[in-house]
Amino acid sequence: MNKSKGFCFSISILVSLVFISCGSNKLTIKDKMVFADNCVVAHRGAWKKMNLPQNSIASLKRTIELKCTGSEFDVRMTADDSLVINHDTEFNNLTIEKTNYADLIKFQLSNGEKLPTLREYIKAGIENNISTRLVCEIKPSGISKERGSIIGVKVVELFRKLHALNKVAFISFDYDILKKIKELIPTVSTQYLEGDKSPEQLMVDGISGADYHFSVYKEHPDWIESAKKNKITLNVWTINDSADMDWLIANKFDFITTNEPELLLERIKFSAVLK
Q1: Per-residue confidence band for 27, with pLDDT thresholds at 50, 70 and 90
Q2: What domain range is 26 assigned to?
Q3: If we measure between CA atoms, which residue out of 138, 131, 130, 128 comes closest to residue 158?
Q4: In terms of Cα–Cα distance, which of 135, 116, 114, 112 is closest to 124?
Q5: Exposure letters 2-40 (e unless 16+ CB within 10 A, then b)
Q6: How far is 153 from 167, CA to CA, in rounded Å?
Q7: Which pLDDT value is given to residue 33?
Q8: What are the φ/ψ torsions at residue 171 (nearest 5 degrees)?
């Protein structure tokens, strides 16, 4: 990264921080939202059964229709600082962080959508939605840790501008991004993905939840009770097998992230019948 680019990034984060903190050192969420009373988080939206593109607005809307408690999606930033929704580092063989948005949208998703911006995604996610949280994964920057922090601040600021902070949970593999978000908004939900921090450590650092791969909980079964004891929410990814779903439901996980939200909703109903 050249010096002028780094200077622009530093000014960008400074302006965002000042804007968020104006009148107060921390931002609070005024209105709480009541989410659907289930544990289903659709991974990159509810795309699989309907053959929709992952991380598309169509898969988001389908999740809302299903009344899942959450719809997960991934945020990256282009070379010209546009926040876009895409899981992989590349889109149509173009590295997102090194490509301008105008060049990326020359290519469409499989259903004809263009690559969504975060602004478009949030607007679609808050429209006619009274039950589904937006589970926003902020991808670490492949360029620098500094850029990752800038992305985190820009994402938070956009949610604030669109009055959607009451509908979001932020997740990331980058622990520093989550800690920065928690500094800005102490009351917002933050969940860590890497799986290398105990629930006790998350509690000390003010991180709200453990969102770990299933294998982590198998390796550290004591973390399940520890999380409950320390009021750390339990999320797990990415669960598509019905037997695993049943085990997690029985162990009262708060959230289960899945590519099969319809199946998980069925397993929840089945477990309720058995009680």
Answers
A1: low
A2: 3-274
A3: 138
A4: 116
A5: eeeeeeebeeebeebbeebeeeeeebebeeebebbebbb
A6: 17
A7: 81
A8: -130, 155
Half-sphere exposure (CA, 13 Å, Cβ side) for 171? 30
> Which pTM does this prediction carry?
0.90
pLDDT mean over 209-223: 98
pLDDT tens figures, 54-74: 999 999 999 999 999 999 999
Q: Give the C-alpha separation, 251 to 185, whole Å.
A: 30
Alpha helices (H) in the chain, listed in sequence order: 3-21, 57-66, 101-104, 118-126, 145-161, 175-184, 199-205, 214-219, 222-229, 242-250, 261-274
**Distance from C-alpha of 150 to C-alpha of 10, rounded to nearest angstrom:** 8
Chain-centre distance of CA 11, in angstroms?
Answer: 26
Q: What residues are paired with 213 via a beta bridge?
A: 237
Say how many domains are in the chain: 1
DSSP state of 187: T
Q: Residue 73 is encoded by which pair of tokens?
A: 């999606």
Q: How far apart are CA 271 and CA 242, in angstroms?
A: 11
Tens digit of each residue's pLDDT (9 = 90 or more) over 93-119: 999 999 999 999 999 999 999 999 999
Q: What is the Cα 138 distance to its own chain's centre?
A: 6
The domain that contains 177 carries what CATH number?
3.20.20.190
How far apart CA 17 and CA 185 sit, in angstroms, is 11
**CA dihedral sign of residues 233, 236, 242, 246:** negative
Phi and psi, residue 113, nearest 5°: -65, 150
* Cα(32)–Cα(10) distance, integer angstroms: 33
Q: Let me know how long the chain is.
A: 275
